[in-house]
Structure formats: C-alpha cells, structure tokens
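Hi W., the zinc ion complex you wanted:
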Amino acid sequence: MTIKNMQFTCPKCGEVSSYAVQTNGEVTEQSGLASHRNLGNLRSLAVPYKNSPNRDAYGPLVPQGIVVHYTQGRYEGAISHFQNPASKVSAHFIVARDGRRVQMVPLPDPDTNGPRDGRYTAWHCKGGNTRYFGIEHEFGYTGATYPADWTEEMMDSSAELSAYMCALYGIPIEVPLAPNERDWFTGFGGHYNVPGNNHTDPGPYFPWDYYINRVEYFASRMADSPSGPTLTSGTPLQTAQGSEAPSYQTL
Ligand SMILES: [Zn+2]
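Structure:
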C-alpha cells in the first residue's frame, strides 16, 4: 500500500522523478525513473543500529533540515554516551573519522500523515529537536582544523546519509546561514546556527562547500547508478513502518 508519493529532482540533470514509498518500506516507480533507476535503492543503505533511549520526550519530528555536530570524544565513547539514559543526549547518526557510522534513533515515516512522534526525535539541539535530524562527527579533542581533521572518509560517510534523508524528506541541499547566524533554517546548518543553543560545533573549519558537494554527489548517484551505492554491511536503515515501533539491535 502506498503511504507517500514523492518527487526527487536529480541534482545532476534536473529531471524530476516521481515515486511512491510503500508501507513495507519499498520504493516503487511512478515516472521518470528510466534514467534514474536506483531511486528505489535509497532504502538499501545499510547502517548498524544501536538504540539510544534518549528520545521520546519531544515531538512530533517534522524534519526541515539536518544539524551537523561534532563530538568531544571518540566514536565509541559517543555511542556509549548516547546509550546512557543519564546523559539525556542522542543523535540520529554518529560518523567516525574512518567512515564507520551508526544509527541510534530511528527515522520517521516519510509520510507526513504517518507517525512522527517523539520516538524519532533525537535530543541533539535544544529547542530544535522537533525540526532537525542530527549527525555527530567524531573528534577526540577540541580545536579541530581543516583539512586534517575532517577526513574524506568521515565526510563521505556522512554526506551519503544526508543525501538519503534529503531525498526521503524533501530537505534542500543547501546551507542558508553563515556560522555566526542563529535562526531556524531549512536545509543544512551547524549546531551553532540553532537558536537558543550556545554550542560552537562543528567549529570554524567544517568544510561546508566540500560536504554539500558530496551530498549532491551521493544524491545524484543514488538516482543514477544502476547498482546503487556500495555500502558497508549492516542492518537496513531503521525507519518507521506504519505505526509499529521499530525493532532494535543492541550492542
Ligand atoms: Zn552539537
């Protein structure tokens, strides 16, 4: 059964494809996919899932963008932190410097009439949690610089996740604010852009131009490649299926 009819504008050629998301999570063609055969493989992203209990307090999540963060600890430590109920923080994804990544909060149904309650709302930016997905990027220390600390492996792994979410939720691939501007944005921003937050991540050296370029690359690749992205093994990306709570893997 179709739960959502969606359109995807290929950032490479501009062609608009129409497709439908089914209740079982599959994506079926409606039109325009002849030259964008792999749109259905948006659902093929395979990312390990380690559940965070730090959700289900705010909601519903009505995604209008993606907030880029960095951690103040290593990848494994961030996972543990987000799995600790006492920390009261989480994010949808954490990406490591070597490209490893993990999902910790499920994504909501792409159907705007579907469940988008607090189960899908990560606790990553005070006041903005019901608006934004959160992606954390590994840093073991502060004072990160570019390019040494923003590895290509980390940027690409994250950009692929972002491209997926942009396609699924109609998030524009753009960065409307400067780092010193605080406002509710649509598209991409840093934690430093979210009103009411005093965080400075992802810092002054985050390579926005490179990152957005890679998001566009993966978005077009998802749409154009006959075989789809080559991805690490793992469980399918956790998304809502109807009103059922998602099943979880644990550490
Ligand atoms: Zn942050």
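The pocket of zinc ion is lined by residues 69, 191, 199, 201 (CB under 6 Å).

W.
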